[in-house]
Amino acid sequence: MTILDNITAYKLKEVAAKKEAIPVRLLEKFPLFAKETKSLAEALRISTTGIIAEHKRRSPSKSVINDKVLLHEVVSGYELAGAKGISVLTDSNFFGGSLDDLLVAEKTVSIPILRKEFIIDPYQIYEAKAYGADAILLIAACLSAEELKQFSHLAKNLKLDVLLEVHNSEELQKSLLPNVDMIGVNNRNLKNFKVNIETSRKLSKEIPTDFVKISESGISDVETIKELRTYGFEGFLIGENFMKTENPGETAKQFIEKLR
Ligand SMILES: O=P(O)(O)OC[C@@H](O)[C@@H](O)c1c[nH]c2ccccc12
């Protein structure tokens, strides 16, 4: 069993319980369900820096990253720093996040927000919308080609942007779908947590230009970003490098200034 298998097995149980507590027809009545969403893909396309800054308290690979800072201070700091999108981890069991985090982020910033979650059921896409997300993450390693198709179609119907995450060519081949806006190459292998930026360089050539290319995980210096831009990447998802410091917003600000 890999950690990803553990997480998805846990998610199946979690989602079954949630569906009982708040069925989709109730989610559809949440005030934020009617909110007009903002496109993360568009925001990245017109940006010269392209940073998506992530709020992440802990992770299975690093345990605690930062549980002292307040989410609203982190995300407002990220926005002020010039981030083009905010990623909020909503998984509680493995990452210490919650849907309340998403609500607080939505109240705090006006840039697009990505719900970072292990989505294994369409229910979670309705939930993302009800709690104020503008975009969702789909992970090719957790889903079949048919599920990727169905889930991205549903997200588009709900006016949510789709970031589809891949880690190898095989996953990429089933991910080039019409309702996908952004392809994210995860430099971290979710099966063993090893980080290798080469994954982005290698897969970049196989991603058609109609998708916004995003490089995710393990990015800690601006030189890497400048280099990855030459491979066509327009978005860069950064969590730990900001979160591990006392003032993530300030760290992001100094980082983004060096990119301008
Ligand atoms: O903290 P990092 O190494 O900068 O990585 C951020 C982000 O890419 C990472 O948290 C992530 C990428 N894909 C995921 C899927 C699930 C949970 C987390 C992730």
Walk me through what this model shows.
It contains twelve helices and ten strands. The mean pLDDT is 97. The protein has an eight-stranded parallel beta barrel, surrounded by five helices. The protein has a two-stranded antiparallel sheet with strand order 2-3. Helix 7 (145-157) links the parallel strand 6 and strand 7. With 260 residues, it is an alpha/beta fold. The protein has a single domain (3-257), classed as TIM Barrel (Alpha-Beta Barrel), CATH 3.20.20. Bound molecules: indole-3-glycerol phosphate (IGP). The site of indole-3-glycerol phosphate (IGP) has 15 residues, from strand 10 and helix 11. Pathway: Amino-acid biosynthesis; L-tryptophan biosynthesis; L-tryptophan from chorismate: step 4/5. One of its GO terms (biological process) is L-tryptophan biosynthetic process. It catalyses: 1-(2-carboxyphenylamino)-1-deoxy-D-ribulose 5-phosphate + H(+) = (1S,2R)-1-C-(indol-3-yl)glycerol 3-phosphate + CO2 + H2O.
